[in-house]
């Protein structure tokens, strides 16, 4: 392949900008905020699950309390009816009176037992309500931390995107100065090796940092200025400059 020396040297300018773009892309992929957001998202999911479980427990206890209170009311109503019968004097048989008094006493004991159950459920529900309040506060704290991390990520992305746009604009201006076939080769090598072109500096390829042999340097000296050379070690385009040591 042939290309004017000036066009070949423009590859070095292009490689510098591509190196900047690579660093920006790496920075975008490895922002600390990305790992923070992932970790906080996992914590938020766990916290949300805990809140749902705690709220479900409160709801279950609410139904349990309502049933226990209904049972208390049913027993109290029955005891009140029996007590009114007893007080009304409608029951005259000693046996029936004894049975009615026994039933009233039994209902009072049953009512007391059920009221103890209601109190126990209320205490459990109060503790569950407090747990829901605490878990919601913890969940909201994690959500706020994630939102702050997302804001920092977005600010960093905006800064990176701005710099990428500026560098890409400069890159477009450089590629306009490079012949299509040379640019195509450069892009192919860049895809394979990360860097498509390297300067020959002081007899050493700056791509692989290998010093060229005397034979290789003599071959380069003998090559026409417009011949596109490749490093024998890393296969990148080898660009000659006044600092090449030739």
From TrEMBL:
Keywords: Coiled coil. Residues 72-87 have a biased composition (Basic and acidic residues). Residues 97-166 form a coiled coil. Residues 72-95 are annotated as: Disordered. The keyword Coiled coil applies. It comes from the Bacteria. InterPro entries: CT398_CC_hairpin, Oxidative_Scav/Glycosyltrans, Zf-RING_7. The keyword Ligase does not apply. Residues 204-238 form the C4-type zinc ribbon domain. This is C4-type zinc ribbon domain-containing protein. Residues 14-194 form the CT398-like coiled coil hairpin domain. PANTHER family: PHOSPHOLIPASE C-BETA-2-RELATED, SCAVENGER RECEPTOR CLASS A MEMBER 3.
């Amino acid at each position: 392949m042939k290309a004017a020396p000036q066009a070949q040297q423009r590859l070095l300018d292009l490689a510098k900008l591509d190196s900047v773009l690579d660093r920006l892309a790496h920075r975008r992929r490895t922002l600390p905020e990305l790992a923070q957001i992932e970790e906080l998202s996992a914590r938020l999911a766990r916290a949300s699950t805990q809140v749902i479980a705690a709220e479900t427990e409160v709801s279950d206890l609410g139904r349990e309390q309502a049933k226990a209170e209904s049972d208390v009311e049913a027993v109290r109503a029955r005891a009140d009816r029996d007590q009114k019968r007893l007080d009304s004097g409608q029951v005259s048989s000693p046996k029936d009176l004894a049975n009615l008094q026994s039933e009233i006493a039994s209902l009072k004991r049953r009512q007391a037992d059920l009221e103890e159950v209601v109190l126990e459920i209320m205490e459990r529900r109060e503790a569950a309500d407090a747990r829901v309040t605490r878990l919601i506060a913890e969940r909201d704290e994690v959500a706020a931390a994630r939102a702050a991390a997302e804001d920092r990520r977005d600010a960093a992305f905006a800064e990176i995107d701005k710099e990428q746009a500026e560098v890409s604009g400069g890159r477009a201006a450089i590629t306009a100065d490079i012949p299509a076939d040379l640019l195509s080769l450069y892009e192919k090598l860049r895809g394979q090796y990360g860097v498509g072109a390297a300067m020959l500096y002081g007899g050493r390829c700056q791509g692989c940092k290998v010093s060229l042999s005397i034979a290789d340097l003599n071959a380069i000296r003998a090559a026409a200025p417009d011949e596109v050379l490749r490093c024998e070690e890393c296969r990148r385009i080898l660009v000659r400059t006044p600092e090449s040591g030739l």
